[in-house]
Specification:
With 334 residues, the chain is of the alpha/beta class. The protein folds into 2 domains: 140 residues, 3-Layer(aba) Sandwich (Rossmann fold); 140 residues, Rossmann fold (3-Layer(aba) Sandwich), CATH 3.40.50.10750. It is 46% helix and 15% strand. Strand 1, helix 2 and strand 2 form a beta-alpha-beta unit. Helix 1 packs across helix 13, helix 2 crosses helix 13 and helix 5 packs across helix 6. The longest helix has 19 residues.
């Protein structure tokens, strides 16, 4: 059984209520059908039934048995509008604007369902930007009390790979924080270590990446990673964390023995912390396309309840995988 199949089995053992709001995308409908038939999650779709069923029929997708909430006819809608207005009126949101968001932006509807504990989590982003996906989550669900920031990672599963945890890695932050400070980078390392433990039940081994290994280059960008490493090691001594490390020194034991012989984690890292969003985004896409790796995410960490993003280039199987991952995250918070 491969890694994502193990995640699906864990999801099946503790079924959670997951919302898929992007019902205008046939990939989402196909993924909903698979999740329902394989008992991966209790799926709810949001939208007008006639439009959803028309798209499903056009693509030969069976939605029999899947719950659909239509904002225009649901008895829940007025309650969600009123609550969103109460939550955001201090920020200048009017009642009319709240109604427009709930009726027209299904991501807001989905997050309000999670807010009221009518659902456990949301997966979106197949046809919307990360900003449009996460803005409602941050406004409504908000940051978890034990988290200093919200960040996002990709779960990477690399075939025929002896590195990491048998080819399983977390790449972080690869979806949200543009240019984190040393303090934020340290907290991203901590959150990513916890996420790796949650999803794999294996020990996280965290490398803060750079173009330098242990002083081989001098630059303010290197200094940032060095400082972040010191902060992370001091604040989170329960985890194995080291840096600054080049990618090969982080994951290849033979290279680590030469470049970082005194590091206890070099050559064995399974959680890779990138110095900025450019590096993280480029890195995960390189591995996904050239190594033909499975990539799931961006998976958020630091929100009270799991609200997860998708790459707009995602496949049906990617969506199914993120639904399963979201379910496991929910179960871990129970």
């Amino acid at each position: 059984m491969n890694f994502i199949d193990e995640i699906k089995q864990r999801a099946k053992s503790n079924i959670k209520r997951i919302i898929l709001p992007e019902t205008m995308d046939e990939r989402v409908l196909a993924a909903a059908s698979i999740c329902h038939k394989e008992h991966i999650a209790d799926i709810t779709l949001i939208g007008e039934e006639t439009k959803i069923y028309e798209l499903a029929k056009k693509n030969n997708i069976d939605l029999n048995g899947i719950k659909i909430i239509n904002p225009y006819t649901s008895s829940l809608t007025e309650k969600l509008i009123n609550e969103l207005y109460e939550l955001r009126k201090a920020k200048g949101l009017t009642k009319e604007e709240a109604q427009k968001l709930i009726m027209e932006d299904y991501m807001y509807y989905a997050c309000m369902l999670v807010h009221f504990d009518i659902a456990d989590g949301v997966v979106s982003g197949a046809c919307h930007s990360t900003a449009n996906t996460l803005r409602p989550a941050l406004q409504i669900i908000k940051t978890a009390p034990d988290a200093s920031l919200v960040s996002a990672f990709f779960l990477m599963v690399v075939p025929n790979c002896e590195y990491g945890e048998n080819g399983v890695f977390i790449f972080s932050d690869a979806g949200l924080e543009q240019n984190p400070t040393p303090e934020k980078l340290a907290d991203i390392a901590h959150a990513s270590a916890k996420s790796f433990k949650t999803l794999t039940n294996k020990e996280p081994i965290v490398a803060l990446l750079s173009h330098s290994t242990k002083g081989s280059a001098k630059h303010p960008d290197v200094d940032k990673v060095i400082e972040a490493t010191k902060i992370a090691q001091t604040k989170y001594p329960e985890y194995k964390i080291d840096g600054e490390l080049q990618l090969d020194a982080a994951i290849v034991p033979e290279i680590a023995a030469t470049k970082a012989p005194n590091s206890k984690i070099a050559g064995h890292a399974n959680v890779l912390i990138f110095p900025d969003l450019d590096a993280g985004n480029i890195g995960y896409k390189l591995v996904q396309r050239l190594a033909k790796a499975e990539s799931y995410g961006p998976i958020t960490q630091g929100i009270k309840k799991p609200i997860n993003d998708l790459s707009r280039g995602c496949s049906i199987s990617d969506i199914v995988g993120v639904v399963a991952i979201t379910s496991v995250q929910v179960a871990n918070k129970d």
